[in-house]
Specification:
By secondary structure, the chain is an alpha/beta fold. It has one domain (about 1-260). It is built from 12 helices and 9 strands. The strands form 2 sheets. Strands 1-9-8-2-5-3-4 form a 7-stranded mixed sheet, sandwiched between helices. A two-stranded antiparallel ribbon has the order 6-7. Helix 2 (about 15-30) crosses helix 4. The protein is globular, with a radius of gyration of 19 Å.
């Protein structure tokens, strides 16, 4: 598998994206559970999109899989150069000027893998990730992601400590804000009108460090031409639920590129041991 992965990396990005369209449809047609979840999430969040949005999202999901070998295995300068547009980088500079580090939220839009490599080409960047089950895949993930000034830390208490240390050094950290956290690490708040277990880690990091927050997402350009990155500063009302405000901000970003969001992700699942929404803890 690793050898096949490395062989794919030699193909041009445009070719991999064309193959990705085919792969996206194969996965969609072969997995009933995957297809059902994708349709349901899209139907609820974007009922106006209809069949056209569904078809485009199936293709974009396949592109996301097939571009991984290229992003992880091509020379870092080439991957960084694939970012053809960068909007709002001044938000990063302004946040860094505060001297408290930067909390960067990178949702599952477009090629979110390229964001860390691009940022780490300019400054130290620590990212939280969930180690995969298989050691060979974990090694491949580290080789692909830990390049430039990128450092990976596990999504556990030790990883949180590393994030806080990076912020204290005035560095940037990256978190996937639409990842479902473990039991006790989130709260049920709306996401496109449905209760979604949403991480409270962002609020704790802000409280502990005072670091500013920047939303950043990747847009996959047509015909394998590369990617556009978008950065925007976020501010939160301390008197209101930060997870709820964060989900509202995520919705706004996703609505700009609904076809490239990972709608197949089980965003509304109940973590093991957690009570479903609207169920009292006293029961």
């Amino acid at each position: 598998m690793v050898i096949f992965f490395e062989m794919l990396a030699f193909l041009p990005l445009s070719v991999l994206h064309r193959l990705g369209v085919l792969l996206g449809w194969i996965i969609y047609l072969a997995s009933g559970r995957y297809a059902s979840r994708l349709r349901e999430n899209l139907r609820h969040a974007h009922p106006e999109g209809g069949t056209q949005l569904l078809n485009t999202n199936i293709a974009e999901a396949g592109k996301g899989v097939m571009e991984l070998p290229w992003v992880w295995k091509r020379p870092l300068p080439e991957v960084v150069a694939s970012v053809k547009q960068c909007h709002g980088w001044e938000c990063i500079a302004a946040a860094q000027a505060q001297g408290k580090g930067v909390i960067m939220l990178t949702p599952h839009i477009g090629c979110f893998e390229v964001i860390a490599l691009y940022v780490a080409a300019h400054q130290p960047f620590t990212c939280m990730y969930s180690p995969p089950r298989y050691q060979s895949l974990d090694k491949l993930m580290h080789q692909g992601r830990e390049r430039g000034q990128t450092k990976l830390v596990a999504a556990d208490l030790g990883g949180v400590r590393h994030l806080l240390k990076a912020l204290k050094r005035g560095e940037a950290i990256g978190i996937l804000p639409d990842q479902v956290p473990g039991n006790g690490e989130g709260e049920w708040v709306p996401f496109f009108g449905r209760p979604a277990y949403t991480m409270t880690l962002i609020g704790r990091l802000i409280e502990s460090s005072g670091a500013p927050v920047v939303m950043c997402h990747s847009e996959r350009l047509a015909n394998g031409e590369g990617f556009a990155l978008h950065f925007s500063a976020l501010s939160f009302d301390a008197e209101s639920s930060i997870p709820q405000q964060m989900n509202a901000a995520l919705e706004g970003v996703i609505r700009k590129h609904p076809a490239q969001y990972l709608w197949s992700y089980n965003r509304y699942k109940v973590p093991r041991g957690a009570l479903p929404p609207n169920v009292s803890k006293d029961l």
